[in-house]
């Protein structure tokens, strides 16, 4: 089939979109991507995105907006994006059979178009919208109503963990598939980076903003010369991290990294973090990329109590689970270093669990099966 993925970020990078697109192309489907570039102002730019399987065509719509701003800060840009997506999908109706809409902010308009044009709709819920973003109270009931209506009428719905079934309780999807946000294992392996083996290396690559304890790790590492913090990604903390890296030799900032470089860096470091604010309802159900990456790479992980997948870390002793504060973070880092002799054993157990339960090979089978039944 011909498939158009619709995503409210520039897919530069977006590991889940890239993996799913790559898997569908490998299975013989024709795929293109329609994406929102919030950093530029332009009508439409067509280019190509390099994936493992080859190049995929990507159409970006340039509408300036902030990342992580929610509806309150981005209402006007979001409405412009909806309008542009609607017009693009109508004008290009002969290019696709299936709309693969990622999250409610693309599914709402995609669902309207799918009904008008009698196209198939796959609703891929990366994050349950009202629990994940800054939605004003007055809009919440309306969005939940619309969201559930889309879940009930879409040809297929994808969620990223079994726990997420609780979030969509009360709906009756025609077909529901769980596709964990696990990384695709790279058969060629990773290029080991030439990093100091005598220093404990903490790594985080992702959205650089509030709630991830990025500043807290920077301040901890600054005071402790036996540690390094290797950090990459993009977001509001970029300038702060550039400055911190200039001031301290043990803070290394890489900027935005392609996904294979992210995995290479993580595989060359010692400890990973997947820290989220537990007061955000969506974080209780989250299935963080970093959790799955840590499993695949066999790297001990620090998470927060009552955030998604923390029970797996606790049950298996794969790292430390902390209270959401700086003191608990620092204790956890030191405690993991005290367990250094266990790291090799922890690594083997994590890799085995990834292979047995979460491998992308299994997720790919689920995705292809879903499309074969549309």
From TrEMBL:
Q: Which residues form a coiled coil?
A: none
**Pfam families referenced in this protein's UniProt entry, alphabetically:** Glyco_transf_4 (PF13439), Glycos_transf_1 (PF00534)
Glycosyltransferase subfamily 4-like N-terminal domain: which residues? 21-181
Keywords attached to this entry: Glycosyltransferase, Transferase
Protein's UniProt keywords contain Transferase? yes
Presence of keyword Lipid metabolism? no
Q: Write down the CDD domains for this protein, in alphabetical order.
A: GT4_WbuB-like
For the Glycosyl transferase family domain, which residue ranges apply? 192-349
Q: Which InterPro entries match?
A: Glyco_trans_1, Glyco_trans_4-like_N
Protein name (database record): Glycosyltransferase
């Amino acid at each position: 089939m011909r498939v158009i993925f619709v995503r409210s970020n520039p897919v530069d990078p977006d590991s889940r979109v890239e993996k799913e697109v790559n898997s569908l192309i490998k299975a013989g489907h024709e795929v293109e991507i329609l994406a929102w570039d919030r950093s530029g102002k332009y009508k439409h730019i067509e280019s190509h995105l390099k994936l493992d399987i080859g190049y995929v065509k990507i159409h970006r719509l340039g509408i300036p907006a902030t990342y992580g701003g929610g509806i309150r800060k981005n209402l006007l840009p979001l409405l412009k994006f909806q309008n542009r997506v609607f017009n693009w999908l109508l004008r290009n109706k002969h290019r696709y059979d299936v709309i693969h809409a990622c999250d409610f902010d693309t599914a709402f308009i995609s669902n309207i178009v799918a009904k008008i044009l009698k196209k198939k709709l796959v609703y891929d819920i990366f994050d349950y919208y009202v629990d994940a973003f800054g939605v004003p109270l007055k809009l919440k009931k309306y969005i939940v109503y619309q969201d559930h209506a889309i879940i009930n009428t879409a040809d297929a719905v994808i969620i990223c963990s079994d726990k997420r079934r609780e979030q969509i309780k009360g709906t009756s999807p025609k077909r529901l598939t769980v596709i964990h946000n696990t990384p695709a294992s790279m058969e060629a392996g990773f290029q080991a980076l030439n990093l100091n083996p005598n220093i404990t290396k903490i790594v985080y690559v992702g959205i650089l903003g509030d709630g991830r304890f990025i500043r807290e790790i920077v301040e901890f590492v600054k005071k402790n010369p036996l540690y390094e913090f290797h950090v990459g990604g993009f977001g509001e903390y970029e300038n702060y991290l550039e400055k911190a890296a200039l001031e301290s030799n043990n803070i290394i900032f890489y900027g935005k990294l392609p996904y294979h470089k992210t995995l290479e860096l993580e595989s060359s470091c010692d400890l990973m973090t997947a820290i989220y604010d537990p007061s955000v309802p969506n974080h209780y159900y989250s299935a963080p990329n970093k959790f799955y990456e840590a499993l695949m790479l066999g790297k001990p992980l620090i998470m927060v109590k009552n955030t998604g997948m923390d029970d797996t870390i606790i049950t298996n002793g794969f790292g430390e689970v902390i209270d959401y504060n700086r003191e608990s973070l620092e204790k956890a880092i030191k405690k993991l270093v005290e367990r250094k002799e266990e790291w090799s054993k922890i690594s083997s157990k994590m890799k085995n669990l990834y292979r047995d339960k979460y491998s992308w090979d299994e997720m790919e089978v689920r995705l292809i099966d879903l499309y074969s039944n549309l």
